[in-house]
Specification:
The chain has 131 residues and is an all-alpha fold. 59% of the residues lie in helices and 0% in strands.
Length: 131
């Protein structure tokens, strides 16, 4: 990440925060990251449930178009709203899952996967221990 202060300015700015967090508790960084990780996993769980529910509602709309006096278009609108809510939950979980020190999303870069590291041992950006 390049800023007007140079390439490593974000890392230098994160060090005082890391020192403060180390003074306030033995494993404060680890505990905060675990809290954020749990929140991310809950958000993704809610996302999966909402998307699955929207698919079930779509099937109900196709099988029983007049169920409860609601037409097919009403059921499809409800399914679309559920799907959109699921996407919002997924994005919220993704945006909240950050390193407590450098505030970057821990990404996994290996031979097969270029996404988010779900349970990293250390932050790939600043190197602080997360587990």
């Amino acid at each position: 990440m390049r800023t007007r202060h140079g390439t490593g300015a974000w890392l230098q700015a994160a060090k005082p925060l890391e020192a403060h967090m180390a003074r306030t508790g033995k494993n404060t960084v680890v505990e905060e990251f675990e809290r954020r990780r749990a929140r991310m996993l809950r958000s993704f769980g809610a996302c999966m449930l909402l998307i699955a529910f929207s698919l079930c509602v779509t099937q109900i709309a196709d099988s029983f178009p007049g169920l409860f006096g609601i037409g097919r278009k009403g059921w499809m609108a409800f399914a679309a709203a559920q799907f959109a809510a699921g996407v919002v939950f997924a994005l919220m979980g993704f945006r909240q899952y950050r390193c407590p020190v450098c505030h970057q999303i821990p990404r996994a870069h290996d031979k097969y996967y270029l996404g988010v590291a779900v349970d990293p041992e250390k932050c790939p950006n600043c190197g602080v221990r997360l587990r």
